[in-house]
């Protein structure tokens, strides 16, 4: 909820300054007011989501020609071929750091080298000992690693150079399912060769950024499937990238991925619209005003502007449903306060 408080710091449309009441009474036509209400607040939310295989990711290439593609629905694991570019396999490696440069010069150090070393070892290739490193997570491109790369390249039918180019591999967190082909054999290998997802079914829920404060990884949720069947789920991931649709005017949203506890509950569905209920906290019988009625005081804290009266400093509590819990001397149910909308 802190995000909402920060946003309110600029709300001065009611004509209040941080030092007290406005210097001149605004005209009635320019000021909107609302009554303080006594109500119940809850951060519980039920939001629409989509059952599928998680957030899709498009695999792109910088150039070349697509010469082979997997079938839709195929699973690709570490060391597997995602597609062939100019008849050379593009290999899936596991990791969190993509290869962002050619790994060719002996002595090269970095997290991308660590990804290469870890994957070679996991695939059964001996890379030799690593020297001590100054930064945790790094690895060094040693003679032993180069030798392992050459053996790996020979086994994969690639030119044996000992160097790995970013175009040779795709680094993803784990095994993937091919959900869609964006190209055909013979097409230029450029934008959108194919689209992959995770292998396990999951629910993707677009959540407004303002509601993220009430959601956390590991939180239990209820998922309502088509037909009314309910099953349990867990928040498995909260994306870090927000997106906004300027045309629709909707607030910025972030994708939240919910994993399902009972795979059998969705065994007959590959995709479907669902509703996801996020439990939250509740407050009964509290005084509340619209969030837009809050004013940020220069010395800190918040206040509301009583219609035709003074500015009253308030303590804020729960933010929910576009309202905020408030308390303060002289504030009572039915008191009309100025709001920005």
TrEMBL record:
Fetch the Pfam families from UniProt: PG_binding_1
Known InterPro entries for this protein? Peptidoglycan-bd-like, PGBD-like_sf, PGBDSf, UPF0194_transport
Annotated keywords: Coiled coil
Where does the Peptidoglycan binding-like domain lie?
A: 110-167
Q: Give compartment(s).
A: Cell envelope
* Matching PANTHER family: EFFLUX SYSTEM COMPONENT YKNX-RELATED (PTHR32347)
Report what the protein is called. Answer: Peptidoglycan-binding protein
């Amino acid at each position: 909820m802190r995000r909402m408080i920060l946003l309110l710091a600029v709300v001065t449309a009611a004509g209040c300054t941080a030092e007290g009441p406005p210097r001149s009474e605004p005209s009635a036509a320019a000021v909107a007011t609302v009554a303080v209400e006594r109500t119940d607040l809850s951060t519980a939310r039920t939001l629409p989501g989509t059952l599928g295989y998680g957030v899709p990711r498009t695999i792109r290439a910088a150039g070349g020609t697509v010469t082979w593609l997997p079938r839709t629905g195929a699973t690709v694991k570490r060391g597997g071929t995602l597609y062939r570019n100019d008849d050379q396999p593009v290999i899936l490696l596991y990791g969190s750091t993509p290869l962002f440069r050619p790994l060719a010069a002996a002595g090269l150090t970095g997290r991308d080298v660590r990804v290469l070393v870890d994957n070679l070892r996991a695939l059964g290739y001996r890379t030799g000992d690593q020297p001590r490193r100054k930064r945790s997570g790094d690895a060094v491109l040693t003679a032993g690693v180069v030798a392992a790369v050459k053996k790996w390249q020979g086994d994969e039918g690639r030119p044996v150079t000992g160097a790995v180019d970013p175009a040779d591999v795709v680094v993803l967190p784990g095994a993937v399912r091919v959900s869609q082909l964006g190209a055909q054999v013979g097409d230029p290998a450029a934008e959108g060769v194919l689209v992959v997802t995770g292998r396990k079914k999951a629910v993707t829920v677009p959540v407004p950024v303002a509601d993220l404060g009430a959601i956390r990884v590991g939180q239990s949720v209820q998922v309502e499937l088509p037909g009314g069947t309910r099953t349990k789920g867990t928040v498995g991931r909260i994306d870090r990238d927000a997106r906004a649709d300027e045309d629709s005017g909707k607030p910025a949203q972030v994708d939240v991925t919910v994993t399902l506890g009972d795979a059998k509950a969705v065994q007959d569905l590959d995709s479907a619209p669902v509703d996801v209920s996020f439990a939250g906290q509740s407050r009964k019988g509290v005084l509340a005003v619209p969030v837009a009625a809050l004013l940020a005081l220069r010395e800190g804290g918040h206040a509301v502007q009583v219609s035709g009266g003074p500015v009253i400093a308030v303590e804020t509590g729960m933010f929910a449903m576009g309202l905020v819990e408030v308390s303060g001397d002289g504030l009572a149910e039915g008191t009309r306060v100025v709001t920005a909308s």
